[in-house]
Amino acid sequence: MQTRVDVFEEMFLLFLGLGTLVGIIVVLYTLYNAYKYRDSDDREAGEDLPSVGELPTGGVGGKKLFLSFGLSAIIVISLVVWSYGMLLYVEDPGDNPGDDGIEVEVEGWAFDWDFYYNDGVDTEIDTTVQTTSVTEPMRVPADTKVWVNVTSTDVWHTFGISELRVKADAIPGEYDQTWFEASEPGEEYTIECFELCGPGHSDMEADMLVMEQDEFDDWLEEEAEEQADDGDDEEEEEETDEDDDNDDSNDGGDD
């Protein structure tokens, strides 16, 4: 299964190779014709001038020209069809995130990134205009498709990881979905904002850590348990506060 990096590198190398080959052929053919049709004393004056009232047919050269146009058209059309198919794969590889991948909601706001995992676990990247403080990097398992649903709570941002060829607009009230796959456990990548969004734009960065699948599962389970416990504690505190308020109201009524 190809990753986004594989797709874009394959396309780049193919077009680079073809462009180099065509460039070499054009330059060599130009030099060949410049030498072949150079001026000399043996050439008759006006040899290349067209005759009055006649259209130049080009002779055998016309067939070569037609053949070159036809071959060029076939190559260009083939490249367009192939490139379109590759880009369609990048946009949607056809796999359900629930089958062999994970789904993460990415929420951008000036000038932070929040990450919410599909099982309710969330991590927050806390940044300020002056410095960048990463309280919890985004974590993903290696060799697994990571589907990200990107949105924003204020202005337009753009979620991007350059090394993985990932970019998605973060638009208030809308979701932009994309995916990526990281293959090396232990690698760290930088998440950046690629949309000018205010004075803290250049500091709107976060780290992303690639983990082994087992290690990631353990971390995710741990985070889920911690956040569940925190939620229970908050509910207990709210219930205690409500009971205290009720007691105070009853005492006031007795007086």
What characterizes the major β-sheet?
Answer: 6 strands, mixed
CATH topology annotation of the largest domain: Immunoglobulin-like
* Rg computed from alpha carbons, rounded to a whole number of angstroms: 31 Å
Calculate the mean pLDDT score and round it.
80
The share of residues in extended strands comes to 15-25%
Largest beta sheet: what is the strand line-up?
A: 4-3-2-1-6-9
Gap from first CA to last CA: 76 Å
What is the CATH homology-level superfamily of the largest domain? Cupredoxins -  blue copper proteins
CATH architecture of the largest domain: Sandwich
Helix and strand string, N-terminal first? HHHEEEEEEEEEEEH
Looking at the structure, what is the overall shape?
elongated
CATH class of the largest domain: Mainly Beta
List the helices and strands and how they pair.
Layout: H1 4-36, H2 60-91, H3 97-100, E1 101-109, E2 112-117, E3 122-127, E4 132-133, E5 138-141, E6 145-152, E7 157-161, E8 166-170, E9 176-180, E10 188-193, E11 205-211, H4 213-254
Parallel strand pairs: 1-6, 5-11
Antiparallel strand pairs: 1-2, 2-3, 3-4, 6-9, 7-8, 7-10, 10-11
What does this structure look like?
By secondary structure, this protein is an alpha+beta fold. The chain has four helices and eleven strands; from the N terminus they run αααβββββββββββα. The chain has two domains: 4-37 and 58-91; 98-217, Immunoglobulin-like (Sandwich), CATH 2.60.40. The strands form two sheets. A six-stranded mixed beta sheet has the order 4-3-2-1-6-9. It has a five-stranded mixed beta sheet with strand order 5-11-10-7-8, covered by helices on one side. The N and C termini lie far apart (76 Å). Mean pLDDT is 80; it is low at 127-135.
